Amino acid sequence: MNSNSTPTTPKLDLDTHIQPSPRSYELVAGEIGRHYEKMFNELMESLPADKAERLARWTGDEINEWNDETVWTYKGSTAPGALSADGRLRTLDYMGVSRSLVFSDPGVQATAMAQGDLALDTMRHWNDFILDFSSTNPDRLRGVAILNTFDVQTAIDEAERVIKAGGRAFVVPSSIAPGDRSPASRELDPLWARIEEANATVTLHAGGEDGFLASRGWDDGVDHLKFDSIDYAAEGEQIGTYLFAAMSLAPQNFLTVLVLGGVFERFPRLRFAAIELGAHWLAPMALHLDHTAQIFKRRFDGVLTMKPSEYIRRNVRVTPYRVENIADYIDRYGMAECYCYSSDFPHPEGGNDPVTDFGNHIARLGDSMNQQFFSTNGEWVLPPLS
User: Structure pTM?
Assistant: First the structure.
């Protein structure tokens, strides 16, 4: 492995996850965690022996060894630091990472962002867990609390509770209008104002776009567009080809409304990031919004004082997938300050050598871009707490 050969240190990692084993899901998710464990046990009983054995290697307890093999190739709950704060800090040290955002497992996020009492219970249970996890080192382990936004006041109250307890990062769903209102509505201003005041960060993350499209049938009847659920431990992207191609639609819509609705005009220090949603869409969207603002110039008089692309460059950061050629994006559109490093640890989508993967993509842009991508760009959404 040559992941530590990249000269830029220390790195900021904008996408890491807690990955509990089935036996520890209840610890991070509460009641729904017991359901997940039951589902897993039933799945294991139904699988052929070879597939069950393979899956078991990714769903055991975390290992307490730190070397190139364990840190970079062990995935799922067996990875060192998958669940424990002390283990995670040692893993960050090995990776050369100074600070990281720490998100939930996708199942926890999906449940907490849904409607109903179970969703709210899961949200609060996860938030309590991640606050405790992060308390070991709040600066390096920036736990990301989940906000359920079906009811605006509930989201505001939970944000306040988390901030008072020391939390400084949040993830919201991109798929729904909060409280059935525009995210740029003045009714949401208290939420954005409180997050800005706390010097906290609001994010969108993969999985939060579920339900944006009115129908789930867009890949029905087309097998190659769907997720291959048989390859449980594949090292490729753990989503279907259609979802991979279309999952940025909801974030684009959400961010379009924030920008054109004047949220970043009213809250110039609001820190915002789109995580694990790719980066191909950001600059073309920014150019399109500039065009829109020019066409409807009179309508935006008194609402926007800058070009939409300028708000994006100032307030927004994104994490590309390791397969994206970021240098081409920058050559074509600029906006080099918006792209940031992420490992997706300990999920297999991050690959076994993300530092080298990304480093190779941006190498021709020189050491300055290397420093920007791996460190300084991410400081906007992952600032030091001291």
Answer: 0.94
